[in-house]
Amino acid sequence: MAWTREQMAERAASELRDGFYVNLGIGIPTLVSNYIPPGMSVQLQSENGMLGFGPFPYEGEEDPDLINAGKQTVTEIPTTSFFSSADSFAMIRGGHIDLSILGAMQVAENGDLANWMIPGKMVKGMGGAMDLVAGVKKVVVVMEHSAKNEAKLLKRCTLPLTGAGVVDMVITDLGVFTIDKRGGGGMALIELAPGTTHEEVRNKTEASYRIAQ
Amino acid sequence: MKKLYPDAQAALAGLLRDGMMIMAGGFGLCGIPEVLIKAIRDSGVRNLTVVSNNAGIDGVGLGLLLDTKQIKKMISSYVGENKTFAQQYLAGELEIEFNPQGTLAERIRAGGAGIPAFFTRTGAGTMIAKGKEEREFEGARYIMERGLVADLSIVHAWMGDTEGNLVYRKTARNFNPMMATAGKVTVAEVEHLVQPGDINPDHIITPGIFVKRMIHVPNAEKHIEQRTVRRRSDAPAGTGEEI
Protein backbone atom coordinates (compact mmCIF):
# COMPACT_ATOMS: atom_id res chain seq x y z
CA MET A 1 0.00 0.00 0.00
CA ALA A 2 1.65 3.19 -1.17
CA TRP A 3 0.89 6.48 0.56
CA THR A 4 -2.25 8.39 -0.43
CA ARG A 5 -2.15 12.11 -1.22
CA GLU A 6 -3.21 12.85 2.36
CA GLN A 7 -0.52 10.56 3.79
CA MET A 8 2.12 12.24 1.61
CA ALA A 9 0.96 15.62 2.94
CA GLU A 10 1.05 14.29 6.51
CA ARG A 11 4.60 13.02 5.98
CA ALA A 12 5.60 16.43 4.56
CA ALA A 13 4.10 18.11 7.65
CA SER A 14 6.58 16.23 9.83
CA GLU A 15 9.28 18.51 8.32
CA LEU A 16 7.61 21.51 10.03
CA ARG A 17 9.18 22.95 13.17
CA ASP A 18 7.86 25.39 15.74
CA GLY A 19 8.32 28.98 14.57
CA PHE A 20 8.71 28.10 10.90
CA TYR A 21 7.63 30.43 8.09
CA VAL A 22 6.42 28.21 5.27
CA ASN A 23 5.30 28.57 1.67
CA LEU A 24 3.02 25.83 0.31
CA GLY A 25 2.49 25.24 -3.40
CA ILE A 26 -0.75 24.26 -5.11
CA GLY A 27 -2.07 20.66 -5.01
CA ILE A 28 -0.85 18.11 -2.45
CA PRO A 29 1.40 20.75 -0.76
CA THR A 30 -1.71 22.78 0.14
CA LEU A 31 -3.00 19.77 2.11
CA VAL A 32 0.04 19.98 4.41
CA SER A 33 -1.70 22.79 6.33
CA ASN A 34 -4.25 20.19 7.54
CA TYR A 35 -1.50 18.38 9.45
CA ILE A 36 0.21 21.20 11.37
CA PRO A 37 0.63 19.65 14.85
CA PRO A 38 -1.55 21.30 17.50
CA GLY A 39 0.38 23.84 19.56
CA MET A 40 3.03 24.34 16.87
CA SER A 41 3.36 27.91 15.59
CA VAL A 42 3.70 27.85 11.80
CA GLN A 43 3.04 30.94 9.68
CA LEU A 44 2.04 30.33 6.08
CA GLN A 45 3.33 32.76 3.48
CA SER A 46 1.45 33.55 0.29
CA GLU A 47 3.73 35.09 -2.31
CA ASN A 48 1.19 37.63 -3.59
CA GLY A 49 1.81 39.53 -0.34
CA MET A 50 0.45 37.94 2.84
CA LEU A 51 2.05 36.28 5.83
CA GLY A 52 -0.12 34.28 8.19
CA PHE A 53 -3.42 33.21 6.66
CA GLY A 54 -6.38 31.30 7.97
CA PRO A 55 -8.89 28.87 6.47
CA PHE A 56 -11.24 29.57 3.58
CA PRO A 57 -13.98 32.06 4.53
CA TYR A 58 -17.53 31.07 5.45
CA GLU A 59 -19.88 31.27 2.51
CA GLY A 60 -20.99 34.88 2.05
CA GLU A 61 -17.87 36.26 3.74
CA GLU A 62 -15.53 36.01 0.74
CA ASP A 63 -13.47 39.17 0.20
CA PRO A 64 -12.18 39.84 -3.34
CA ASP A 65 -9.27 41.78 -1.80
CA LEU A 66 -8.17 38.79 0.29
CA ILE A 67 -6.74 35.91 -1.76
CA ASN A 68 -3.80 33.52 -1.65
CA ALA A 69 -1.27 32.85 -4.41
CA GLY A 70 -3.66 30.30 -5.94
CA LYS A 71 -6.18 33.19 -6.27
CA GLN A 72 -8.43 31.42 -3.75
CA THR A 73 -10.37 33.44 -1.17
CA VAL A 74 -8.81 33.06 2.30
CA THR A 75 -9.14 34.73 5.72
CA GLU A 76 -6.99 36.77 8.09
CA ILE A 77 -5.74 35.57 11.46
CA PRO A 78 -4.37 37.73 14.33
CA THR A 79 -0.74 37.32 13.12
CA THR A 80 -1.51 38.34 9.52
CA SER A 81 0.51 41.02 7.75
CA PHE A 82 0.13 42.36 4.21
CA PHE A 83 2.92 43.68 2.00
CA SER A 84 3.85 44.29 -1.63
CA SER A 85 5.02 41.57 -4.02
CA ALA A 86 8.53 43.09 -3.88
CA ASP A 87 8.62 42.70 -0.08
CA SER A 88 7.16 39.22 -0.44
CA PHE A 89 10.00 38.09 -2.67
CA ALA A 90 12.53 39.84 -0.44
CA MET A 91 11.34 37.34 2.19
CA ILE A 92 11.64 34.48 -0.29
CA ARG A 93 14.83 35.39 -2.13
CA GLY A 94 16.46 36.76 1.01
CA GLY A 95 16.32 33.37 2.72
CA HIS A 96 13.80 34.37 5.41
CA ILE A 97 11.33 31.57 4.61
CA ASP A 98 12.27 28.31 6.32
CA LEU A 99 10.52 25.78 4.13
CA SER A 100 8.96 25.57 0.68
CA ILE A 101 6.83 22.54 -0.18
CA LEU A 102 5.91 22.21 -3.84
CA GLY A 103 5.00 19.79 -6.59
CA ALA A 104 7.19 18.68 -9.50
CA MET A 105 7.18 17.02 -12.89
CA GLN A 106 10.79 15.79 -12.57
CA VAL A 107 13.55 15.81 -9.96
CA ALA A 108 17.16 14.77 -10.69
CA GLU A 109 19.61 13.11 -8.33
CA ASN A 110 21.66 16.34 -8.17
CA GLY A 111 18.67 18.35 -6.90
CA ASP A 112 17.62 19.84 -10.25
CA LEU A 113 13.89 20.52 -10.41
CA ALA A 114 11.54 20.80 -13.41
CA ASN A 115 7.95 21.83 -12.77
CA TRP A 116 6.99 24.71 -15.03
CA MET A 117 6.99 23.83 -18.71
CA ILE A 118 6.67 21.06 -21.24
CA PRO A 119 8.13 22.10 -24.61
CA GLY A 120 5.50 22.05 -27.34
CA LYS A 121 2.63 22.52 -24.93
CA MET A 122 1.02 25.81 -23.92
CA VAL A 123 3.20 27.29 -21.20
CA LYS A 124 1.41 29.07 -18.38
CA GLY A 125 4.51 30.47 -16.70
CA MET A 126 6.64 29.79 -13.67
CA GLY A 127 4.87 32.17 -11.29
CA GLY A 128 6.94 32.35 -8.10
CA ALA A 129 8.40 28.83 -8.30
CA MET A 130 11.87 29.83 -9.57
CA ASP A 131 12.25 32.41 -6.79
CA LEU A 132 11.03 30.01 -4.12
CA VAL A 133 13.44 27.21 -4.99
CA ALA A 134 16.34 29.65 -5.38
CA GLY A 135 15.77 31.45 -2.09
CA VAL A 136 14.00 29.33 0.53
CA LYS A 137 16.20 27.57 3.10
CA LYS A 138 14.77 24.08 2.60
CA VAL A 139 12.93 22.85 -0.49
CA VAL A 140 10.72 19.76 -0.22
CA VAL A 141 9.05 18.27 -3.30
CA VAL A 142 5.87 16.22 -2.90
CA MET A 143 4.88 14.27 -6.02
CA GLU A 144 3.69 10.93 -7.39
CA HIS A 145 6.69 8.65 -7.76
CA SER A 146 6.07 8.04 -11.47
CA ALA A 147 3.61 9.26 -14.10
CA LYS A 148 2.08 6.76 -16.55
CA ASN A 149 4.95 4.37 -15.86
CA GLU A 150 7.50 7.06 -16.66
CA ALA A 151 10.06 7.74 -13.96
CA LYS A 152 10.05 11.23 -12.47
CA LEU A 153 13.14 10.74 -10.27
CA LEU A 154 15.86 10.92 -12.89
CA LYS A 155 19.62 11.09 -13.37
CA ARG A 156 19.10 14.36 -15.26
CA CYS A 157 15.88 16.27 -15.89
CA THR A 158 14.75 16.20 -19.53
CA LEU A 159 12.32 19.11 -19.10
CA PRO A 160 13.44 22.76 -18.77
CA LEU A 161 14.58 23.45 -15.21
CA THR A 162 12.86 25.55 -12.58
CA GLY A 163 16.05 25.52 -10.54
CA ALA A 164 19.49 23.86 -10.70
CA GLY A 165 20.55 21.95 -7.59
CA VAL A 166 17.72 23.22 -5.41
CA VAL A 167 15.80 20.23 -3.96
CA ASP A 168 16.60 18.94 -0.43
CA MET A 169 13.93 16.26 -0.06
CA VAL A 170 11.44 14.37 -2.22
CA ILE A 171 8.34 12.73 -0.75
CA THR A 172 6.52 10.40 -3.13
CA ASP A 173 3.77 7.83 -2.66
CA LEU A 174 6.50 5.17 -2.32
CA GLY A 175 8.95 6.79 0.07
CA VAL A 176 11.16 9.68 1.14
CA PHE A 177 14.48 10.70 -0.44
CA THR A 178 17.03 13.27 0.65
CA ILE A 179 19.38 15.05 -1.74
CA ASP A 180 22.71 16.49 -0.64
CA LYS A 181 22.46 19.35 -3.11
CA ARG A 182 25.42 21.36 -1.82
CA GLY A 183 27.73 18.62 -0.58
CA GLY A 184 27.38 16.54 -3.75
CA GLY A 185 26.57 13.45 -1.68
CA GLY A 186 23.78 12.42 -4.03
CA MET A 187 20.35 11.01 -3.32
CA ALA A 188 19.39 8.68 -0.49
CA LEU A 189 16.23 6.72 0.24
CA ILE A 190 15.55 7.32 3.94
CA GLU A 191 12.03 5.94 4.28
CA LEU A 192 9.87 3.42 2.50
CA ALA A 193 6.06 3.78 2.48
CA PRO A 194 4.38 0.87 4.32
CA GLY A 195 3.84 -2.12 2.05
CA THR A 196 6.29 -0.83 -0.56
CA THR A 197 9.34 -2.92 -1.46
CA HIS A 198 12.83 -1.80 -2.35
CA GLU A 199 12.41 -3.64 -5.62
CA GLU A 200 9.34 -1.60 -6.56
CA VAL A 201 11.12 1.67 -5.81
CA ARG A 202 14.18 0.56 -7.80
CA ASN A 203 12.03 -0.36 -10.80
CA LYS A 204 10.29 3.00 -10.81
CA THR A 205 13.37 5.16 -10.21
CA GLU A 206 15.92 6.15 -12.85
CA ALA A 207 18.06 8.19 -10.45
CA SER A 208 20.83 6.46 -8.55
CA TYR A 209 20.38 6.51 -4.81
CA ARG A 210 21.72 4.78 -1.78
CA ILE A 211 19.57 3.21 0.87
CA ALA A 212 19.97 5.00 4.20
CA GLN A 213 17.08 3.68 6.28
CA MET B 1 -1.22 71.24 -9.87
CA LYS B 2 -4.49 69.36 -9.85
CA LYS B 3 -4.09 65.57 -9.89
CA LEU B 4 -7.74 64.63 -9.70
CA TYR B 5 -9.52 64.08 -13.03
CA PRO B 6 -13.27 63.65 -13.54
CA ASP B 7 -13.03 60.24 -15.22
CA ALA B 8 -10.63 57.66 -16.69
CA GLN B 9 -10.84 59.03 -20.23
CA ALA B 10 -9.87 62.50 -19.04
CA ALA B 11 -7.08 61.14 -16.82
CA LEU B 12 -5.53 59.23 -19.76
CA ALA B 13 -5.94 62.06 -22.30
CA GLY B 14 -2.65 62.78 -24.10
CA LEU B 15 -0.86 59.82 -22.46
CA LEU B 16 -1.71 56.97 -24.85
CA ARG B 17 0.09 56.13 -28.05
CA ASP B 18 0.50 52.99 -30.16
CA GLY B 19 3.45 50.77 -29.27
CA MET B 20 3.88 52.07 -25.72
CA MET B 21 4.70 50.06 -22.60
CA ILE B 22 2.08 50.03 -19.84
CA MET B 23 2.41 48.53 -16.35
CA ALA B 24 -0.88 47.37 -14.85
CA GLY B 25 -1.12 46.51 -11.13
CA GLY B 26 -2.92 43.51 -9.70
CA PHE B 27 -2.46 39.83 -8.95
CA GLY B 28 -4.99 37.69 -10.78
CA LEU B 29 -8.10 39.87 -10.65
CA CYS B 30 -7.23 41.23 -7.20
CA GLY B 31 -6.36 44.93 -7.09
CA ILE B 32 -6.51 45.49 -10.84
CA PRO B 33 -7.14 49.03 -12.20
CA GLU B 34 -10.10 47.89 -14.26
CA VAL B 35 -11.74 51.27 -14.81
CA LEU B 36 -8.50 52.53 -16.39
CA ILE B 37 -8.13 49.31 -18.42
CA LYS B 38 -11.62 49.84 -19.86
CA ALA B 39 -10.70 53.41 -20.83
CA ILE B 40 -7.54 52.12 -22.57
CA ARG B 41 -9.70 49.63 -24.46
CA ASP B 42 -12.13 52.37 -25.50
CA SER B 43 -9.24 54.58 -26.69
CA GLY B 44 -8.34 51.99 -29.33
CA VAL B 45 -4.58 52.34 -28.72
CA ARG B 46 -2.72 49.34 -30.19
CA ASN B 47 0.51 47.31 -30.21
CA LEU B 48 0.89 47.64 -26.47
CA THR B 49 3.54 45.95 -24.37
CA VAL B 50 1.86 45.27 -21.04
CA VAL B 51 3.75 44.43 -17.85
CA SER B 52 1.47 42.66 -15.41
CA ASN B 53 1.84 39.54 -13.28
CA ASN B 54 -1.13 37.90 -15.04
CA ALA B 55 -3.25 38.59 -18.10
CA GLY B 56 -6.72 38.67 -16.56
CA ILE B 57 -9.36 36.15 -17.58
CA ASP B 58 -11.57 36.13 -20.63
CA GLY B 59 -13.57 39.36 -20.69
CA VAL B 60 -12.20 40.66 -17.38
CA GLY B 61 -9.19 42.84 -16.52
CA LEU B 62 -6.45 42.69 -19.16
CA GLY B 63 -8.58 40.04 -20.90
CA LEU B 64 -10.52 43.05 -22.23
CA LEU B 65 -7.43 44.29 -24.12
CA LEU B 66 -6.70 40.79 -25.41
CA ASP B 67 -10.24 40.45 -26.77
CA THR B 68 -9.66 43.57 -28.89
CA LYS B 69 -6.10 42.48 -29.85
CA GLN B 70 -4.61 45.72 -28.51
CA ILE B 71 -1.74 43.89 -26.80
CA LYS B 72 1.33 42.90 -28.82
CA LYS B 73 3.43 41.58 -25.94
CA MET B 74 2.94 40.59 -22.32
CA ILE B 75 5.65 40.55 -19.65
CA SER B 76 4.16 38.30 -16.96
CA SER B 77 4.91 35.43 -14.59
CA TYR B 78 1.77 33.35 -15.07
CA VAL B 79 -1.00 33.49 -17.63
CA GLY B 80 -2.84 30.22 -17.06
CA GLU B 81 -6.35 31.53 -16.69
CA ASN B 82 -6.95 33.06 -20.09
CA LYS B 83 -8.24 31.11 -23.12
CA THR B 84 -8.06 34.11 -25.47
CA PHE B 85 -4.44 34.49 -24.47
CA ALA B 86 -3.66 30.88 -25.42
CA GLN B 87 -5.42 31.19 -28.78
CA GLN B 88 -3.60 34.40 -29.74
CA TYR B 89 -0.29 33.07 -28.51
CA LEU B 90 -0.58 29.83 -30.47
CA ALA B 91 -1.64 31.81 -33.57
CA GLY B 92 1.54 33.89 -33.27
CA GLU B 93 -0.42 37.11 -32.68
CA LEU B 94 0.87 37.66 -29.17
CA GLU B 95 4.36 37.62 -27.70
CA ILE B 96 5.05 36.58 -24.14
CA GLU B 97 8.10 37.16 -21.99
CA PHE B 98 7.91 35.08 -18.84
CA ASN B 99 9.64 36.49 -15.78
CA PRO B 100 9.83 34.70 -12.44
CA GLN B 101 7.36 36.52 -10.20
CA GLY B 102 9.97 37.81 -7.76
CA THR B 103 12.25 38.88 -10.59
CA LEU B 104 9.34 40.74 -12.19
CA ALA B 105 8.54 42.49 -8.90
CA GLU B 106 12.18 43.42 -8.38
CA ARG B 107 12.69 44.60 -11.98
CA ILE B 108 9.81 47.03 -11.43
CA ARG B 109 11.03 48.09 -7.98
CA ALA B 110 14.54 48.63 -9.39
CA GLY B 111 13.26 50.59 -12.39
CA GLY B 112 11.31 52.92 -10.14
CA ALA B 113 14.32 53.34 -7.85
CA GLY B 114 16.73 54.28 -10.66
CA ILE B 115 18.60 50.96 -10.56
CA PRO B 116 19.28 49.76 -14.13
CA ALA B 117 20.18 46.16 -13.24
CA PHE B 118 20.68 43.75 -10.35
CA PHE B 119 21.87 40.19 -9.75
CA THR B 120 19.61 37.39 -8.52
CA ARG B 121 20.00 33.65 -7.93
CA THR B 122 16.49 33.13 -9.31
CA GLY B 123 16.68 31.33 -12.65
CA ALA B 124 20.44 30.69 -12.59
CA GLY B 125 21.11 27.48 -14.51
CA THR B 126 17.70 27.55 -16.23
CA MET B 127 16.59 28.64 -19.71
CA ILE B 128 15.71 32.12 -18.48
CA ALA B 129 19.41 32.73 -17.80
CA LYS B 130 20.17 32.51 -21.54
CA GLY B 131 21.84 35.65 -22.87
CA LYS B 132 22.09 37.19 -19.41
CA GLU B 133 25.33 38.13 -17.71
CA GLU B 134 26.24 35.66 -15.00
CA ARG B 135 28.46 36.23 -11.95
CA GLU B 136 29.47 34.29 -8.90
CA PHE B 137 29.08 35.78 -5.41
CA GLU B 138 30.10 33.80 -2.31
CA GLY B 139 30.27 30.64 -4.36
CA ALA B 140 26.74 30.86 -5.81
CA ARG B 141 25.67 31.68 -9.37
CA TYR B 142 23.68 34.83 -10.02
CA ILE B 143 22.19 36.25 -13.21
CA MET B 144 21.77 39.90 -14.14
CA GLU B 145 18.24 41.21 -14.59
CA ARG B 146 17.33 44.69 -15.85
CA GLY B 147 15.21 47.29 -14.13
CA LEU B 148 11.93 48.13 -15.89
CA VAL B 149 10.46 51.57 -16.51
CA ALA B 150 7.15 51.96 -18.35
CA ASP B 151 5.72 54.82 -20.36
CA LEU B 152 2.59 54.59 -18.22
CA SER B 153 1.65 52.81 -15.01
CA ILE B 154 -1.95 52.25 -13.98
CA VAL B 155 -2.65 51.23 -10.39
CA HIS B 156 -5.63 50.55 -8.14
CA ALA B 157 -5.73 51.75 -4.52
CA TRP B 158 -8.30 51.47 -1.77
CA MET B 159 -7.93 55.05 -0.57
CA GLY B 160 -6.18 58.14 -1.83
CA ASP B 161 -6.12 61.83 -1.04
CA THR B 162 -6.08 64.53 -3.70
CA GLU B 163 -2.30 64.86 -3.28
CA GLY B 164 -1.97 61.29 -4.63
CA ASN B 165 -1.01 59.62 -1.35
CA LEU B 166 -2.28 56.03 -1.57
CA VAL B 167 -3.30 53.21 0.75
CA TYR B 168 -4.02 49.70 -0.48
CA ARG B 169 -6.29 47.06 1.04
CA LYS B 170 -5.17 43.54 2.04
CA THR B 171 -3.74 41.45 -0.84
CA ALA B 172 -4.96 44.01 -3.40
CA ARG B 173 -1.64 45.77 -2.73
CA ASN B 174 0.54 43.23 -4.64
CA PHE B 175 2.32 44.88 -7.61
CA ASN B 176 0.59 48.26 -7.32
CA PRO B 177 3.13 50.10 -5.09
CA MET B 178 6.17 49.20 -7.23
CA MET B 179 4.37 49.99 -10.47
CA ALA B 180 3.34 53.38 -9.09
CA THR B 181 7.07 54.20 -8.82
CA ALA B 182 8.10 52.77 -12.21
CA GLY B 183 5.89 54.63 -14.67
CA LYS B 184 7.11 57.80 -16.42
CA VAL B 185 3.50 58.78 -15.71
CA THR B 186 1.39 56.99 -13.10
CA VAL B 187 -2.38 57.17 -13.04
CA ALA B 188 -4.17 55.80 -9.97
CA GLU B 189 -7.80 54.85 -9.47
CA VAL B 190 -8.97 55.04 -5.84
CA GLU B 191 -12.09 53.55 -4.28
CA HIS B 192 -12.26 56.12 -1.50
CA LEU B 193 -11.24 59.71 -2.19
CA VAL B 194 -10.30 61.83 0.82
CA GLN B 195 -8.65 65.18 1.52
CA PRO B 196 -4.98 65.71 2.46
CA GLY B 197 -4.65 65.12 6.19
CA ASP B 198 -7.39 62.50 6.31
CA ILE B 199 -4.93 59.60 5.96
CA ASN B 200 -2.53 59.12 8.87
CA PRO B 201 0.87 59.89 7.24
CA ASP B 202 2.30 56.81 8.98
CA HIS B 203 -0.13 54.65 7.02
CA ILE B 204 0.57 55.94 3.52
CA ILE B 205 2.08 53.20 1.33
CA THR B 206 2.63 55.19 -1.88
CA PRO B 207 3.64 58.83 -1.34
CA GLY B 208 1.92 61.23 -3.71
CA ILE B 209 5.15 62.13 -5.52
CA PHE B 210 4.75 58.92 -7.56
CA VAL B 211 1.20 59.68 -8.69
CA LYS B 212 0.62 62.24 -11.46
CA ARG B 213 -3.07 61.76 -12.12
CA MET B 214 -5.92 60.07 -10.31
CA ILE B 215 -9.60 59.26 -10.55
CA HIS B 216 -12.25 58.31 -8.02
CA VAL B 217 -13.89 54.91 -8.68
CA PRO B 218 -16.44 54.53 -5.86
CA ASN B 219 -18.33 51.75 -7.65
CA ALA B 220 -15.41 49.73 -9.06
CA GLU B 221 -16.53 46.16 -9.63
CA LYS B 222 -14.42 43.48 -7.92
CA HIS B 223 -14.03 39.93 -9.12
CA ILE B 224 -13.25 36.64 -7.40
CA GLU B 225 -11.31 34.17 -9.51
CA GLN B 226 -11.41 31.10 -7.23
CA ARG B 227 -14.28 31.25 -4.76
CA THR B 228 -13.30 28.91 -1.94
CA VAL B 229 -15.38 28.61 1.24
CA ARG B 230 -15.81 26.35 4.25
CA ARG B 231 -18.74 25.08 6.22
CA ARG B 232 -19.52 26.59 9.59
CA SER B 233 -17.36 24.19 11.57
CA ASP B 234 -13.77 24.53 12.71
CA ALA B 235 -11.24 23.97 9.98
CA PRO B 236 -7.50 24.59 9.80
CA ALA B 237 -5.78 26.93 7.36
CA GLY B 238 -6.15 26.20 3.68
CA THR B 239 -8.95 23.69 4.03
CA GLY B 240 -12.47 23.78 2.70
CA GLU B 241 -13.99 23.19 -0.66
CA GLU B 242 -14.08 24.89 -3.97
CA ILE B 243 -17.52 25.79 -5.25
Topology:
The complex is a heterodimer of chains A (213) and B (243).
Chain A: H1 5-13, E1 21-24, H2 28-31, E2 43-46, E3 50-54, E4 75-82, H3 85-93, E5 99-102, E6 106-108, E7 113-114, H4 129-135, E8 138-142, E9 146-147, E10 150-151, E11 153-154, E12 169-171, E13 175-180, E14 186-192, H5 198-203, E15 209-211
Parallel strand pairs in A: 1-2, 1-5, 5-8, 6-11, 8-12, 14-15
Antiparallel strand pairs in A: 2-3, 3-4, 6-7, 9-10, 12-13, 13-14
Chain B: H1 8-12, E1 21-24, H2 34-43, E2 48-51, H3 63-67, E3 71-76, H4 83-90, E4 95-98, H5 101-112, E5 117-120, E6 134-137, E7 140-146, E8 150-161, E9 166-167, H6 176-182, E10 183-194, E11 213-216, E12 228-229, E13 241-242
Parallel strand pairs in B: 1-2, 1-8, 2-3, 3-4, 8-10, 10-11
Antiparallel strand pairs in B: 5-7, 6-7, 8-9, 12-13
Helix pairs in contact in B: 5-6
How would you characterize the overall build of this protein?
The complex is a heterodimer of chains A (213) and B (243). Chain A has 5 helices and 15 strands. Chain A is of the alpha/beta class and 213 residues long. Chain A has a single domain, classed as Glutaconate Coenzyme A-transferase, CATH 3.40.1080. A 10-stranded mixed beta sheet of chain A has the order 4-3-2-1-5-8-12-13-14-15, with helices on both faces. In chain A, helix 2 links the parallel strand 1 (21-24) and strand 2 (43-46). The longest helix of chain A is centred in the first third of the chain and has 9 residues, at 5-13. Chain A is globular, with a radius of gyration of 17 Å. Chain B has 243 residues and is α/β, with parallel strands linked by helices. Chain B has one domain (8-116, 147-216): Glutaconate Coenzyme A-transferase (3-Layer(aba) Sandwich). Helix content of chain B is 19%, strand content 28%. Chain B has helices spanning 8-12, 34-43, 63-67, 83-90, 101-112, 176-182; strands at residues 21-24, 48-51, 71-76, 95-98, 117-120, 134-137, 140-146, 150-161, 166-167, 183-194, 213-216, 228-229, 241-242. In chain B, a hairpin with a 4-residue loop joins strand 8 (150-161) and strand 9. Chain B is globular and about 50 Å long. Chains A and B meet through strand 3, strand 4, helix 3 and helix 4 of A and helix 4, helix 5, helix 6, strand 12 and strand 13 of B.
